[in-house]
């Protein structure tokens, strides 16, 4: 196995372990194995994920039915659902997988040099032939009680090629300037500073700022918005569904004082919902929100 491919698989395993630990409150270490796919792979639950690197899905994760049911059930039992429906079990497993893939996308961003994000994903059926299983690498997650789940993963070459290209560009970057050049570069800056051209060093914050820093501000998270006619609002009752203007793959908004300050993804930490910050809103964008 190529080193870069191994690095991607290990990172996916680490991210899935973090997602499971956040939900279950216990470590689930991951490891790579040379275990071949056993059984009819067409009966596995296989998730095919697109990234913004390519128009086609670039990551596939397949797991047998017993494994995803066990993972999803344990996660829901941990939050108090003793007898969850199978549809909820499946959705919970896929949510954990999506969290792991989101973490992998952030890792790929650092390795490729451009922002990598999740796009659409879908459940697919793999062909039952052994050739399909031979292309998958085994990623094993192990619980503290000894239960293990084998995830069979395929990463398309386009991902590895992008990592390899970025690595090669950094290795062939021009060498740094020699010491004599580095010594001569700061001299104009020192001269400008001596002439008063540089900014004055900032002093300690005024006393009033210390008081403001202790003021508590309500923080809310927006999953989306919609507009309803009054006649539709009146019809709302228990069980009604209100569709919002945000897809499941879009980030939620963190709002302070009616102003969006950040965006991120929903995660689960020890049975509680949380938000992992992915983007801090710039000052100019915050100012535009007041217009």
Task: Tally the beta strands.
Answer: 10
- What gross morphology would you assign? globular
| Unreliable parts | 188-201
Rg over C-alpha atoms, rounded to the nearest angstrom: 25 Å
Query: In CATH terms, what is the architecture of the largest domain?
Result: 3-Layer(aba) Sandwich
Terminal CA distance = 54 Å
- Give the SSE string: HEEEHHEHEEHHHHEHEEEH
How is this structure best described in words?
With 291 residues, the protein is of the alpha+beta class. Helix content is 40%, strand content 23%. The strands form two sheets. It has a six-stranded antiparallel beta sheet. Strands 7-8-9-10 form a four-stranded antiparallel beta sheet. Helix 1 crosses helix 3 and helix 2 packs across helix 3. The protein is globular, with a radius of gyration of 25 Å.
Compact description:
The protein has 291 residues and is α+β, with helices and mostly antiparallel strands.
Per-chain topology:
Blueprint: H1 3-24, E1 30-33, E2 45-51, E3 59-63, H2 65-78, H3 86-112, E4 118-124, H4 130-134, E5 137-142, E6 148-155, H5 157-171, H6 179-184, H7 186-194, H8 207-213, E7 219-222, H9 230-234, E8 252-256, E9 259-269, E10 272-280, H10 283-288
Antiparallel strand pairs: 1-5, 2-3, 2-4, 3-6, 5-6, 7-8, 8-9, 9-10
Helix pairs in contact: 1-3, 2-3
